[in-house]
Amino acid sequence: MSLEKIRNFSIIAHIDHGKSTIADRLIQMTGAxxxxxxxxxxxxxxxxxxxxxxxxxxxxxxxxxxxxxxxEYILNLIDTPGHVDFTYEVSRSLAACEGALLVVDAAQGxxxxxxxxxxxxxxxxxxxxxxxxKVDLPSAEPERVKQQIEEVIGLDASDAIECSAKTxxxxxxxxxxxxxxxxxxxxxxxxxxxxxxxDSWYDNYLGVVSLARVYDGELKAGSKIRFMxxxxxxxxxxxxxxxxxxxxxxxxxxxxxxxxxxGIKVVKDARVGDTITDARNPAPEALPGFEEAKPMVxxxxxxxxxxxxxxxxxxxxxxxxxxxAISYETETSxxxxxxxxCGFLGMLHMEIIQERLEREFDLDLVTTAPTVxxxxxxxxxxxxxxxxxxxxxxxxxxxxxxxxFILASIMAPSEYMGAVMTLCTERRGIQRDMNYISDTRxxxxxEMPLSEVVMDFFDRLxxxxxxxxxxxxxxxxxxEGKLVKLDILINGDPVDALSVIVHADKADMRGRELAKxxxxxxxxxxxxxAVQAAIGAKIIARETVKALRKNVTAKCYGGDITRKRKLxxxxxxxxxxxxxxxxxxxxxxxxxxxxxVD
Length: 598
Ligand code: GDP
Ligand code: MG
Hints:
Subcellular location: Cell membrane
Organism: Magnetofaba australis IT-1
Bound molecules: guanosine-5'-diphosphate, magnesium ion
Membrane topology: Peripheral membrane protein
EC number: 3.6.5.n1
Binding site for GTP: 16-21, 133-136
Structural class: alpha+beta
C-alpha cells in the first residue's frame, strides 16, 4: 500500500461525547468486523473501563475503506485514553497521527477536556475535523456549537460534520472527510527503521505487544529490533495489524500502524513514547519526546488481613506487567503492618488500580489518604522527595517544604462561577484567567496546589455546579508552602497512617474537624477511646468515643434468632475493612476521612 492511500487518525473528545460509539460505527461501516464479532464498544476491552465509560489503554484498528473516488484506502484509527491522568499517553497517540476527529456533543458543547485535547492535537500539527455528535437529540444545537468551536477554539467549523453515532447518520461523511482532509503520512520507506511506540500491553500468550507507528523503513519479522530509549535489543518474533483482531503480516512499512511482538516480559521494557529501530541498521537518532510517566500521587495499600501481604505483592507484580506507570515499594507502618506505598499518575489511575486489585485479585485492602510528592529541603543543604507524611523529616531538620502546583482549567455555566471561585480560593487557588466561551458558559483558570485537588476537589466542584463543570489540569512547578504535619493519636499513640501534610493556616481547623469526624467513624468499643489531633507536640483537638454499655444484640429481645443472626452477619461484614490498632478497631473510612473535611 503506497503512503498516498494511508490515513492515520485519532478521535478526541470530552468524556461521554461519543468517541467510543463513533469508533464502533466506523469499524462497523468499513466491515472490519462481522456483526457477530461486533461486540458493543469493541475498543474498550476491559470490564472496568466499560463500566466507567472511559478508555484506559489506547487501542487501534486498521480499516479498509473504498472511497467515493473508487480507490481503496487504509484508515488507521488510533484510540486515545481520554483522561487528564493519561495526558502523556494521549500525546503519544496523537503524535502517531496526521489528523483527528474532534467530537463535540451537539447538546453539551465544548468542555474542558475538549480544549485540552485540541491543544495537544494542535501541538502535533494535526488536521482537525470537527464532528458534532448526537444531532438526533432534541436538545442538539449544532449551529450554536459550531459557533462555539469557532469562537472558543478558533477552528473553522464551516465544514464541520453533523452526525449521530446512535442512528448512523453522518458516519459516511466522516469516512469521506478522513480521506479528503487528512494528509497521507510522510516518511522514507528505504531509510533505517524508525517507529514510535503508541501503546504496549501484556498478553498471556504473546507477552508484551506494542502498537507502533512506523515513520521510516520497515520492521521485518525475524529481524533484531532495538528500543532506543530503554536501550534493549530483541529478536522481532512477529508483526501484524489490528483489524481490530490481530492479523500477522511479514513486515510493517513506513506509514503503517501495527503490532510488534518481541517476547518482552514487562511493559516497562516497551514504554509508550520509545522509538523502535533495527539493531543492525539503527536510526541515527530517536524520535523526540521520550518521557517516563511520573507518578504524582502516592497512597499506602494494606491488606486487611496481614496474611494477604504476599498476595498483594504478587497482584501488583502482575498488574505492572501491563502498566508501566504503576510503581510500588514495601512499606511498614507501626499501625497497619506490612503494606506497599504505591505511586499513581493521578486520582483516576489510583482508583482504577485499587479496583482491579480488589476485583481481579479478590483482595480486601485498607487504603491511606493519597498524598502528592513533596520536595523537602534539609538544613544540611540536601533535599529529599517525600511520598508519605510518615517520612517527613523532623521540623528541626528541614528548611522548607515544596509542593507541586497545577494549572486547573474549569468550564461551567456562568451562574455557578461564584461558587467555583469560592471553592478554588478555599483550596488556595490563584486566579489566572477568565473568559466567556458563550453567553452562558465561562472558562476559568487557577493555579492551585495539587494536594488540594487530590483532596476531593472534583466531587466538590461537581456538587457546587450541579454536575455542569468540567475540569482539566496540567503540572506547573514546585513552590514553597507553609506546610505542617498533622497527626492523629488514638488513646495517646500517634497512628502514622492517619497523618497528613496540611497548610499551616488550615491545620487547626482541619485538626478539629478530623478529630470530630474520627469520633463519628470509629465504632464504640468496650472502653473509652480518646482521639486527639496534634501538630508536633501540641494537641489541638480532643474527642472521646464513649464506651459501649449494652450488648448490640440485646435489642433483639425475644427469640427472633434470624434477626439476631442477621445483625451479627452485618457486623461481620462491616468488620471486613477494619484494622486493629492497639485495642481499637478502625474502619477504612477513617483513613480517608481527611478527604472529606475542609
Ligand atoms: P465516550 O466517553 O466519548 O467514549 O462516549 P461514548 O461513546 O461511551 O458515549 C457516551 C454516551 O452517549 C453513551 O451512553 C452513548 O450511547 C451515547 N451516545 C453516543 N453517541 C450518541 C448519539 O449520536 N446520540 C445519542 N442520543 N446518544 C449517543
Ligand atoms: Mg469511550
